[in-house]
Design goal:
The chain is mainly beta and 120 residues long. The protein has no helices and eleven strands.
């Protein structure tokens, strides 16, 4: 069994910052890609940022220059530092990790989501 536990969401004023964390635990041999998605009410879930095991990152255009994704492989944790937050960043944020519990197969796991609210 693998669990992803997210933390760090909350209420922040526009222009403020938040740092999200997602820690993976359980039967883990290795974690490959780690990503953050978000879903606002009435909208589809969208990719915010991703990071490979070797640290290559990619971002949605809407967050480039404001958000930074990073990971600590020793702690099986991925972070999302969010700065200059805008009301349109408000959503439930989910982490997704591609995990190999053994030598061969890889599976995608989702966290439970953490709410980010941005007041204008």
């Amino acid at each position: 069994q693998v669990q992803l536990v997210e933390s760090g969401g909350g209420l922040v004023q526009a222009g403020g910052s938040l740092r999200l964390s997602c820690a993976a635990s359980g039967s883990i041999f290795t974690i490959n890609a780690m990503s953050w998605y978000r879903q606002a009410p009435g909208k589809q879930r969208e990719l915010v940022a991703g990071i490979t095991r070797d640290g290559t990152t990619n971002y949605a255009d809407s967050v480039k220059g404001r958000f930074t994704i990073s990971r600590d492989n020793a702690k099986n944790t991925v972070y999302l530092q969010m700065s200059s937050l805008k009301p349109e960043d408000a959503a439930v944020y989910y982490c997704n990790c591609r995990i190999r519990p053994g030598l061969v197969h890889e599976y995608g796991y989702w966290g439970q989501g953490t709410q980010v609210t941005v007041s204008s």
